[in-house]
Amino acid sequence: MTCDNNEEARYPICCPNEQSKTPEATLKASQNLGYIDPKGLQLLKSYPDCGGKYNGERYSFNVAHGKPAKAYEFPWMALLKYEKAGRPFLCGGSLITDRFVLTAAHCTTTSFELVAVRLGEHDLDTEDGGEIEYGIEDIRTHPNYEHGSINYDIALIKLDRIVVELFIEPICLPINVSQDLKYNENLYIAGWGKTEDGVPSPILRMAEVQQQDLDVCRKYYSNAPLSENHICALGDSQQETCRGDSGGPLFSANLTDNTPQCVQFGVISSGGLGCGINKNRPGVFASVLDMLPWITQNLY
């Protein structure tokens, strides 16, 4: 067994020696949801400029009660397009490699057929030439997800071709120890979901939230058992996730080695359906860190 012992790595890349590789060992590893696939991890590490459009200043925009994000400020944001009348976009997602989009599992199991993923979008009411739609080659839902549940609510969408546009780039995932999530850390959500008027926003918006103890969310989601593979987060002044934001990222925005970088820690699973009214309901997110082994196993 040989390993890359980079001290910054959360999961050192270890590869069996050639003589120790057997089909049985490979199959057993792939069935272990706690197994970090070295090839998948190496792929995530191959994007040193991920999450790089953050400008180093503290964000202050909102999804509900807020201002729009700047064009191309979040070049990893994705919209999921469905075969339906009216507005065809029901969920969001995030580009994590040049071929895969991370989203919520419940966004891939709706009654509407998921037909495409749009990247490079900012304002749905305006075409500026940056919007690009990709077909879907494959959808991979976490094997422990059950329809209607918020447990293991995570999925990967493989695009039909590689993303080559320079203005579209992936967000980082928390693969290094220095990217640990802290309770007092400012986190952000983004999406085109409903605003305080109850109408889906045509412009990408965002909100600042803070991680809460899971018991805070348990008060609001008593029928949905929450576990350590969830993150509970709540914003100030009625900032929360809204219907239509599902599948989008929960991310930090910090300077890493003096380099602006956004790191995704969660996937929006369930949020405040009041969307701007005084309930100030917290949002529930699937933990990317807990799902990271499964993610690395499915980036092929």
UniProtKB/TrEMBL annotation:
Record keywords: Calcium, Disulfide bond, Glycoprotein, Hydrolase, Metal-binding, Protease, Serine protease, Signal, Zymogen
Ranges where the Peptidase S1 domain occurs: 63-300
GO biological process, one term: protein maturation
Segments forming a coiled coil: none
UniProt keyword Metal-binding present: yes
SMART domains noted in UniProt: Tryp_SPc
Pfam family, one: Trypsin
GO MF: metal ion binding; serine-type endopeptidase activity
Family as reported in the entry's similarity comment: Belongs to the peptidase S1 family. CLIP subfamily.
Protein name per UniProt: Serine protease grass-like
